[in-house]
Design a protein that fits this description.
Helix 3 packs parallel to helix 4. The two termini are 24 Å apart. The chain has 231 residues and is α/β, with parallel strands linked by helices. The protein is globular and about 45 Å long. The relative contact order is 0.16. It is built from eight helices and eight strands, in the order E-H-E-H-E-H-E-H-E-E-H-E-H-E-H-H. The chain has a single domain, classed as TIM Barrel, CATH 3.20.20.70. The chain has an eight-stranded parallel sheet with strand order 1-8-7-6-5-4-3-2.
C-alpha cells in the first residue's frame, strides 16, 4: 500500500540572499518538509551549510527539517546536528559499516529523530540488505550528489522498484525518498515503483509559480501510484 506523496524542496536551489522568504513561500505553497543538503567538500565535491545554518533555519519555519548529511564522518559530526533537533537526519551508507549503522539509528531514535540512509547511484542495494529493517527512510540518489540542477539518471527507476520489492518481501515499510532531477516529468517514474517522498530543488525554486510546481510533482506521483499517467 502506498503512502501519500511528501514533497521536500531542497533549499540548495533557493536564493540564499532571500532564503527566509523562499522558505516561507514553499511553506505556503504546500511543501511537506524542507530538505537541507549538508556537504563537506570531501564526500562530495561541494561545500554547503552546516550546524549554525540548520539551527537558524529551524527558527524560521514550522516545516519538518529533512537533513541530508553528505559527509565523510557522520558519527563524529552527528551529535552536533542532533542538537539542532531536526525531524529526520539521513546519512550515507558508503560512510558506515553495519555496526555503525546501528549506532547511528540508536543515537537518532534516542532523541526522537527519524533515521534515514542514503545510497549513491552506483552503490548496490545488496549493501543495504543487512540493515534495511532498522531505517525509517531510505533515500535513493537519482543523481550523483554534490550539485543541484542535474538530470535524472534513468536507471534510478529500476532501483526504486527493486528497493520497494525488497521491502515488501520482508514486510518492511520505510519511507522511500528519491533525490535528483525530480520534476513533474520524472515524479511518476519513481512513485510508480514505490517512492513516496520526493526531493525537488530546481523544479520548485526555479519555477515562477512554486505552488503549481509542488502540486504538479505531487499530482504526477499520486497518479502513478494508482497506475495511471498524466500524459
Amino acid at each position: 500500500m502506498f503512502d501519500s506523496i511528501r514533497i521536500s524542496p531542497s533549499i540548495l536551489s533557493a536564493d540564499f540572499m532571500n532564503l527566509e522568504d523562499d522558505v516561507h513561500e514553499i511553506e505556503k505553497a504546500g511543501a511537506d518538509w524542507v530538505h537541507v543538503d549538508v556537504m563537506d567538500g570531501h564526500f562530495v565535491p561541494n561545500l554547503t551549510m552546516g550546524v549554525p545554518f540548520v539551527k537558524q533555519l529551524k527558527t524560521v519555519t514550522s516545516l519538518p527539517l529533512d537533513v541530508h548529511l553528505m559527509i565523510d564522518n557522520p558519527l563524529h559530526e552527528l551529535p552536533w546536528f542532533i542538537d539542532c533537533l531536526p525531524s529526520l537526519i539521513t546519512v550515507h551508507l558508503e560512510t558506515l559499516d553495519d555496526t555503525e549503522c546501528h549506532t547511528v539509528v540508536e543515537m537518532l531514535h534516542e532523541k526522537g529523530i527519524k533515521a534515514g540512509i542514503a545510497l549513491k547511484p552506483d552503490t548496490s542495494l545488496d549493501r543495504l540488505d543487512p540493515t534495511l529493517g532498522i531505517w525509517d527512510m531510505v533515500l535513493i540518489m537519482s543523481v550523483y550528489p554534490g550539485f543541484s540542477g542535474q538530470s535524472y539518471i534513468s536507471r534510478s527507476t529500476e532501483r526504486v522498484a527493486d528497493l520497494s520489492k525488497r521491502c515488501r518481501i520482508r514486510g518492511l515499510h520505510p519511507l522511500i525518498q528519491v533525490d535528483g532531477g525530480i520534476s513533474g516529468q520524472t515524479a511518476g517514474l519513481v512513485c510508480a515503483g514505490g517512492a513516496d517522498t520526493l526531493v525537488a530543488g530546481s523544479a520548485i525554486f526555479g519555477a515562477s509559480d512554486r505552488a503549481h510546481a509542488i502540486d504538479s510533482i505531487r499530482a504526477a506521483g499520486t497518479v502513478a501510484q494508482k497506475g495511471g499517467s498524466l500524459v
